[in-house]
Amino acid sequence: MKRYQALADTMAAEIRAGRLPVGTRLPSVRHLTTQYGVGQSTVFRAYYLLEEWGLIRARERSGYYVAPGAGLPAPAGTPPSPLAEPAPIDVSSLVFSVLDAVKRPDVVPLGSAFPSPKLFPLARLSKSLAHATRMLDPWSTVVDMPPGNEPLRRQLALRYIGMGIAQPVEELIVTNGAMEALTLCLMAVTRPGDVVAIESPCFYAALQAVEHLGLRAVEIPVDPREGLDLDVLAEALDKHPVRACWFMTNFQNPTGVTLSIDKKRALVELLAKHEVPLIEDDVYGELHFAQDRPPPAKAFDTKGLVMHCASLSKTLAPGYRLGWVAAGRFADAIRRLKLMTSISTSIPIQAGIADYLQHGGFDKHLRKLRGALLAQRGAMETAIARWLPAEIAFARPDGGYFLWLELPGHVDAMQLHRQALARGINVTPGPIFSARHAFGNCVRINFGHPWSTQTESAMKTLGELLRAPS
Length: 470
Ligand SMILES: Cc1ncc(COP(=O)(O)O)c(C=O)c1O
Prior knowledge:
Blueprint: H1 3-16, H2 29-36, H3 40-52, E1 56-59, E2 63-66, H4 91-102, H5 122-134, H6 140-143, H7 150-162, E3 172-176, H8 177-189, E4 195-200, H9 204-212, E5 216-223, E6 227-228, H10 230-239, E7 242-248, H11 261-274, E8 278-281, E9 306-311, E10 322-326, H12 331-342, H13 347-359, H14 362-387, E11 402-406, H15 413-422, E12 428-429, E13 442-446, H16 453-467
Helix pairs in contact: 1-3, 2-3, 5-13, 7-13, 8-9, 8-12, 14-16
Bound molecules: pyridoxal-5'-phosphate.
Protein name: GntR family transcriptional regulator
Keywords: Aminotransferase, DNA-binding, Pyridoxal phosphate, Transcription, Transcription regulation, Transferase
InterPro entries: Aminotransferase_I/II_large, HTH_trans_reg/aminotransferase, PyrdxlP-dep_Trfase, PyrdxlP-dep_Trfase_major, PyrdxlP-dep_Trfase_small, Tscrpt_reg_HTH_GntR, WH-like_DNA-bd_sf, WH_DNA-bd_sf
């Protein structure tokens, strides 16, 4: 420990013990140098540290005083919540219990919605962030408000060109993650009480957004091998006043299925015929295992009806909360809604990501990430074959990092979730992916984390739980 730290500790102990009460003037620097036999800079640094800890305050030309509140105990870290006890739960609280359990570092994250943070180039990213922040033009605070930082949107537009889409930069709006983009799209094209078509099973946050905005949902089945049922969708469009569709076309969450190119084209044509906007959620599109990125439905849109939403949360920088929407004819409405709801996406983050996309080697990182995920999919499949009952069915996804397991019919996925959590393993139970709590015998598991003995033994435990008499 450095001398100034030791001195700061000694004085902090005096203050906390009440021997130096609130408002007391601290001894002068000269006094302390003599008392402790240290140099002036050591005393100053100790005082700065005490100030940082909130224990003392400087008064101009007067010296340092013990700060109000210095006697209060330091805020304790939040104790980890105990593992959930078996209890009846509804879908919303189940969603939060799953998300809460993901936060626990001691729980095996098979229920996580993210890949391992270890797979992201965090050091290179922070270099871009530091560089961009140093160069930040003070006016960017206003210039980069919605639709967002122009160099960033140009970088994003270049990536659309890579998918064969001539994406106008003016129609790209930067958001706080894809979630904000998706919600703003929904807000732009619906009013409370309207009907929206969603997938079944679907990403649980879509259900929450629909509920939150007071909308009604018509669920369109998704087959884990074939994807969205377009015949049912056509019927729903004829029967109901559907105002918008919210679908995933690539590596759907939770099933992992990708729509074929023909189906994507047919979907866009069907919706164009009915003049119904498509909110396309494509957050996993870059995580493909085949050579080429599967195109989004946006690639077939000639009417500006598709709002293509994506983010870097699953591919580069989860905590940065950087997403966007290629909003077609709704761009202006969404830009205004973005201003009204969150004013702007963090300006330094936008600039930092623009710098990274330009200079950081994003495509090289993506190649590495995809390679890791593909290897982890293989390890997960081997573990399933080794530890889980043979009756389990799943379709092999061509990208992303989720497996949707259909368990034997008698298995209760909610119960399995609770039992697994009690054993320190998180899996996502099927019913949270459905408005009607369907998929009671399905679970989604995440293979986005480097394989470890902990994962192997978690899979073994799942096998034991599945084989145990209920
Ligand atoms: C299908 C899907 N869409 C959207 C999101 C939200 O993305 P973001 O974290 O960029 O807001 C997620 C995150 O889990 C997701 O799985």
